[in-house]
Amino acid sequence: MHLMKVNGEVEAVVGDQSLEQLQKAVDGYIEQIHFPTPVEVEGVKYSHAYVNEEGKLRAMPINQRATRLWVEAHGITVEEATDYLVGNVLFFTDAEV
Fold first, then answer.
1. What 3-state class would DSSP assign to 89?
2. pLDDT digits over 33-90, tens only?
């Protein structure tokens, strides 16, 4: 797992992956999102991520780097996108689901 912070920094997540720890990473309740084509983060291919379920309601800042990966995985550009990701984004593989 890798955590992509709003400021663009990425860090590996190791150890405890309990619900509490996942919620702590995204600062609230988690919502799973899917990438239709895998994206690469720190050399690892990911098809899934957790975001803060209430991130937009809480007016969390846009995660520019994660949004770019997400929209490109959908085959569109950031300029064409009508949605975006906010807050910290926690990427995980099929094996980590």
1. strand
2. 999 999 999 999 999 999 999 999 999 999 999 999 999 999 998 889 999 999 999 9
The residues with which 16 forms a beta bridge, in sequence order, are none
Query: Rounded CA gap, 49 and 66, in Å?
Result: 10
Q: What is the phi/psi pair of residue 32, to 5°? A: -85, 135
pLDDT at 92: 93
